[in-house]
Amino acid sequence: MDRLPKIALPAVFIIILLIILISKSAVTIGSGEAGVLYKTFGGGVVTEKPPLGEGFHLVAPWNKVYVYEVRQQEVFEQMKVLSSNGLEIQIDASAWFQPKYENLGRLHQEKSEQYKERILLPAIRSAARSVVGRYTPEQLYSSKRDAIQNEIFEETKAIVDEQYIQLNEILVRDVTLPPTIRESIENKLKQEQASLEYEFKLVTAQKEAERQRIEAQGKADANRILSASLTDKILQDKGIEATLELSKSPNAKVVVVGSGDDGLPLILGNN
Q1: What Pfam families would the database entry show (predicted)?
Q2: Pairs from 122-127 (Cβ < 8 Å, separation ≥ 24)
Q3: Out of 72-76, 106-110, 208-212, 228-232, which region has the weakest mean confidence (pLDDT)?
Q4: Which domain-ending residue is among 34, 69, 104?
Q5: What total number of domains does the chain contain?
């Protein structure tokens, strides 16, 4: 009985030590995350193997695991850039991105956990300055919004692709011009719209006048052709046909007494 305390104390110490070691060695990688293993005595960051996936992992207590979110993320950026004529333009944009999973170790080793601040955001700013500098404020305000967005995306992607970052989309959410420039552009657009409406009405009126002229000309041509075709002989034949049809009426007694001045028969009697 006297020996139990001497055996129990080391056992308790060992159990406590094991609990500490396991707690230091156990790593749980959450959903949408991956871990970069750092070996203190084994060459530092592990880059030749895939990162640690989701779930429970045991690592040596002297090593460390850096956890990264590898699902798609979004970052917002507000930039002041210059247009082609030197005016300051404010652009509000956001980027959809995620680290390249297979290169997560190299991303951590070369760029660190601050890769968004060190690589992605500076790349977006640089691309925005380059793209916006090719356009006027009028183009930025109206017709070229989609083109600007696509160009910023392409130029940013070309930069970050080699930096182990996957860029999925750039969204230009707002373009803010100086108030005086914006008012000037809006007034110009209103004047252009009014001019287009006037031109439309003018063209419509011209087309209606042309339609009426063509219709009148057609009627005149038809009357002229008809008049030219109605000879005296044709008119006399038509008159005879009409007289004969009338003579067949049951309400009239027909007596032909010679002819009239125009050579047509005369019909007498109405009983």
Answers
A1: Band_7 (PF01145)
A2: 123/156, 123/159, 123/160, 123/163, 124/77, 124/79, 124/93, 124/95, 124/152, 124/156, 124/170, 125/77, 125/79, 126/155, 126/156, 126/159, 127/151, 127/152, 127/155, 127/156, 127/159
A3: 228-232
A4: 69
A5: 3
